Amino acid sequence: MRDAAGFRGRCRVLRLTHCAARLTAVSLFIFTLRRWLLLLAALRPKPDRFPQTCQVFRILLLVPFYNEENNLPGLLSHLDRVAYPAEYLTIVLVDDGSTDGASLAARRWVAQRPSRHLLTLPRNVGKAAALNAALSRFPQGDLIAVYDADERPSPDTLRQLAACFVDERVGAVNGRRAISNPLDSPMATYAAFENLVHEQITMRGKDRLRLAPALLGSNCVYRRAALKDAGGFRPGALLEDTEITLKLAQAGWETRYVSAAVSHHAVPHTIAGYWRQRLRWSCGFQDAARLHAADILRDGRLSLPLRLELTLFSFGYLDRLFLLTGLALCCVLHIAANRNGLSFRGIEESFAYAGKRFLTLSLTASLLTPLFQVIVALRLVRAPLALWRRVILLPFFLGLDILITLVSFWQKRLFER
Question: Does residue 251 have a pLDDT over 50?
């Protein structure tokens, strides 16, 4: 009797493990299928086209900064070379309570140039609140451009982005944020690979499928009316760009991605810097999913493909957790399928084998697809040979990515308690 009860208990546990494996495999399949659909869309022979128009929009260009003494002067020198009619461009530097020499550099730059302003906030309130403060203080400008202090835009970038707003359905546009230091360190190389896949594959594919390519928070331009419809930026948001992407889509506005509108910026070149940045992003995605995912799924005004894509996008790095879960379950099923000496046989063995096979296929596809995406992205940008040689580093940083996601979920749970 005791042996029979133990056998039934083991069967029950194995069935639950098998169901978890199936669910994980299906989730991984969905994320992998999304990657392939966007990859195929990105490879479609459809070059970027800019509307031929004589219309010139009034632009309010905002530069929020906090303690950017080393980065701000470089951006300001690039803004001096922006090829946009001066009478239609107003630039506002938003000092978000800086305590270093960035404030002095901003004051000197503004004092020497017309239509340049400095808004100094009494304390640090975060990027989203700083942008809202500038928008309420400066009503000029039908379009709102945003640049972080570490950006280095090309002269024609702003004109190329503004040209897209001839289409009255467009609420916001983002240009390409190219990496200026991909070979500084192995960590910088991995961050550059992520950037290439996100922009050359994901963003380009979503733009061609009209699936609301994400706004990246810098080298981007918003329509003021669209920002108003979306309720502005949520103060305190860790990823204000992600949240405003979702809110604009819900408000009926389209977003675009223009890969030819290039601006360069540096990525973290140390593990500590990468850890801090990605941890903040992962926590920000969790906030976005918690605040918007359910409403998006229920929003019948959006097409079903758009609802599904926005929901998957809002979950951010959730696929890393499914990948870790899949690896753990695959090990459990492998052990269960080979424990014949402990009466794991018959129906138990068949459950373990079927679940393990399905999960193994999903895991293999999930691990190989990003590698293929990186290879395609490198070809699209004609990457130098030195960058190609570092593709071998990809597997070594996968564990770091998964660990960051785990820590972010743990931190959010502790904080919310």
Answer: yes
